[in-house]
């Protein structure tokens, strides 16, 4: 009888562990240390998932078209004052929101800070620069061995980056 109770308790413990693992949101790692091992596991819950980045601009359709070409994305929503581009309608994307009185950032002037910028990975930075400038980007001061700084047509800074410097670290 004691052996049967022990098996039942162990079965319930294992079922409880399996249930806890299934209750976690997708993408959260789950590990349960063996009882008596002295190991602890820190877990965190997910509050939400990234949905998109919103960029204020005086011409949402125009700026969306710029980034649509630069990033090879598709337009997934267009309400005139609010335009969204992305890989697919059900994935995170870039949104462009009408802000008629926007004062664009002035790189690298801290009096008009950038507030945010996009890093866009490219394989050939020289070719990517020609294409970005052809779409209406403007070259800004500042660069390093693996990045160059630009502004989009509304004045928001962004960088074209190569990932070769990261590869050498790995």
Describe what you observe in this structure.
The protein starts with a helix and ends with a helix. It folds into two domains: 51-102, 2,3-Dihydroxybiphenyl 1,2-Dioxygenase, domain 1 (Roll), CATH 3.10.180; 104-170, Roll (2,3-Dihydroxybiphenyl 1,2-Dioxygenase, domain 1). The strands form two sheets. Strands 1-4-3-2 form a four-stranded mixed sheet, with helices on one face. The protein has a four-stranded mixed sheet with strand order 5-8-7-6, covered by helices on one side. Residues 1-30 and 165-170 have low confidence and may be disordered. It has helices at 2-23, 60-71, 125-135, 164-169, and strands spanning 52-57, 74-78, 82-86, 93-98, 118-121, 138-144, 147-151, 157-161. The protein contains four helices and eight strands, in the order H-E-H-E-E-E-E-H-E-E-E-H. It has 170 residues and is α/β, with parallel strands linked by helices.
Task: Please outline the helices and strands.
Blueprint: H1 2-23, E1 52-57, H2 60-71, E2 74-78, E3 82-86, E4 93-98, E5 118-121, H3 125-135, E6 138-144, E7 147-151, E8 157-161, H4 164-169
Parallel strand pairs: 1-4, 5-8
Antiparallel strand pairs: 2-3, 3-4, 6-7, 7-8
Gist?
The chain has helices at 2-23, 60-71, 125-135, 164-169, and strands at 52-57, 74-78, 82-86, 93-98, 118-121, 138-144, 147-151, 157-161. By secondary structure, it is of the alpha/beta class. It has 2 domains: 51-102, Roll (2,3-Dihydroxybiphenyl 1,2-Dioxygenase, domain 1), CATH 3.10.180; 104-170, 2,3-Dihydroxybiphenyl 1,2-Dioxygenase, domain 1.
